[in-house]
Amino acid sequence: MIKSTNTKATMPSQEDFAELVKRANAGDDDALAMMRKTLDSNPEIWQSVGDLAKHAQQSMVKLIAGGNMLVSESLLRKAEQMKGELAGTSPSKLEKLAVERIVACWLEMEYLATTYPVAKGETLGQARFALKQKESSERRFNAAMKSLTTLRALLPNGNAQASDHHEKNEHAHSKSHVNGKQSKSRQGMKATQKRRVNGHPNNRIKVYLDESEPVTV
């Protein structure tokens, strides 16, 4: 009996991998091939490096903190807390993307709010620029929140499995239409679904929408 062998490459040291990347960037084809093989064998590397949302959030946190490590670590923890509260226990991939966008917009909005606490500047043009920056960030934040709410309205239980189940129910009840009108049972199902969407525990974004104020342009 032939024993199976583990073909996964050993995780390279940080120094060795940095040197490999340096050689690949310099045009070394052999180094590029080795780097690709290393990434294929260690997906955690490219998953971390390729997480642009995480990089964007870290860059914004660094900008806000201004070298203050207490502020930096506190903001990172606050961002993770927001993700957990908004995503829920078993978010779909689309929900995860929407939540990442919300947190990124929140960081940008808070940065501008602290940088420009009031619309002021040396000139009227600078004051208007600061105000427009703040208003634009607020619109992006509100749009990101509404996107998540819309997504959860389409997926009542917040996942793809719920969507498949919903489509099956739609097909099963399609025969309930008589002479172009919906039967009472069909109308009752729609009313129940609407109540379930609005009150679903995964729809935690609703509290943020209720508390946010409309932006006037």
Class by helix and strand content? mainly alpha
Mean pLDDT: 75
Number of helices: 10
Fraction of helical residues:
over 70%
Number of domains: 2
How large is the radius of gyration? 25 Å
Distance between the termini: 74 Å
**H/E topology pattern:** HHHHHHHHEEHH
Task: Indicate the low-confidence ranges by residue numbers.
Answer: 1-7, 158-168, 173-180, 194-202, 210-217
Shape: extended
Strand order of the largest sheet: 1-2
Please tally the β strands and state the result: 2
User: DSSP strand (E) fraction?
Assistant: under 5%
Let me know the largest β-sheet.
2 strands, antiparallel
Descriptive account of the structure:
The structure is a single chain. The protein has 217 residues and is mainly alpha-helical. The chain folds into two domains: 37 residues, no CATH class; 144 residues, no CATH class. 71% of the residues lie in helices and 2% in strands. A two-stranded antiparallel ribbon has the order 1-2. β1 and β2 form a beta hairpin. The longest helix is centred in the middle third of the chain and has 31 residues. The chain starts with 13 loop residues before the first helix and ends in a 6-residue tail after the last helix. The N terminus and C terminus are likely disordered.
